[in-house]
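Re-running the complex after MR caught last week's input typo. The corrected sequence lines follow. Everything else is unchanged.
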Amino acid sequence: MSWLRILAGEATDNAFLDKLTFLPICLDIAMVICAFNFLAFLFRVLRGPAVADRAVAMDSCGTAVMALIVIYSMRQGTDLYMSCVLVIAILGFIGMVALSKYIQSGNIVNNTNIILNVTEAEDLKEEADAAEVLHQKMEQAIQKTAEKNVRNMRKQLNRKK
Amino acid sequence: MSLFLEIIVSLLVLAGTLFLLGGAVGILRFPDTYCRMHALGKGTTMGIICFMLAAFIYFAWSGVSICVQSLLALLFIAISSPVGGHMISKAAYHYGVPLWKGSVRDDLQADCEFIREDKADY
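Corrected-run output:
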């Protein structure tokens, strides 16, 4: 019989756990420390300067909740809560991936605007340079054609005179 | 045999608690975003692995069931938690979260020189 069980007054009595000597005390200590961990992660969620800090701390809040669920299910003596742990783990990973995409590009689904590495950036730079060169050539061609037109007009005018 | 299993389960529970506590102390005390991620990535992964092993052994020993969910959660956490930590820290680096002023080495700087610059308000 552990002191936290007397304090909380749980509904079900786990007869298997009551026979053991020091595992209930260990579970109580672990439960208190995990609650403290949850509060520490929550402090970082409130305080953290960067968005990444808050994201990681929130994921770790999920981890602390998983630990608490495991301890609680061990105290109750059922394994029905372990599915909840699995679901929290999977959802936490998906949330982490979505948040990292959001932090990197400000956008989750469409990631065409992300510059991923050096080679891509160099390619983009080369494309921009090529486009600039093309633009200059086009301007020169336009100028040449305009000058030709002016010359032809002058010739025609001279012939008419 | 019963005492042996009880000692193992208790040690696993206490070890998991210790790892989680290490992560919590790290996230409270470390100076930098990347340092905090480093503390959390190791601490939470190892803590949850210890907890899941303890739950599996406890449920198999007490005759409730062979709890496959705990092993699945262990496997999934062991794979996904480091990957998520790396993704978040890479995103933070590309976003421009500055490094701690006492940091010695920054190997990614040469690769991201003209993509990234440190932001004062992140």
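None of the earlier attempt is carried over here. Chain B touches chain A through 57 residues (CB under 8 Å). The mean pLDDT of chain B is 89.
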